[in-house]
Amino acid sequence: MKKTYQRLPESELDIMLVLWNNTPPMTRPEIEKVITMKKKLASTTILSLLTRLENKNFVEVTKQGKMNLYTPLVSQSDYQAHESQSVLEKLYGNSLKKFVTSLYHGKKISSEEVQDLSEFLKNLEDREK
């Protein structure tokens, strides 16, 4: 059975990125210290976002003394795969070619990146043989 995830708003995704890119479990002050490098959020806002993520089953909360420890329940790679598939389906009719064409014509992908992608696809093809 394919697992589906709710799409996270940017503010909740920012919290998940902190958890994914650091060493969980993390406390709210540890999360706040990292997130403050990107943008200033009040402690109460961070707590609210963590509660929402817990309610959506994205994080698990365990108590250690007076502190709550937050651990991601969803891996970054699983979430990325789900979001990528969703974008591909909704915006590009499930066509990877249309997606890459859009990036290339929008100047969001260089000819070097096209070459890297070509080599990547060739390697995938070779592995399938």
Automatic annotation (TrEMBL):
The gene is blaI_2. One of its GO terms (biological process) is negative regulation of DNA-templated transcription. Keywords: DNA-binding, Transcription, Transcription regulation. One of its GO terms (molecular function) is DNA binding. It comes from Blautia obeum. This is Regulatory protein BlaI. It comes from the Bacteria. Belongs to the BlaI transcriptional regulatory family.
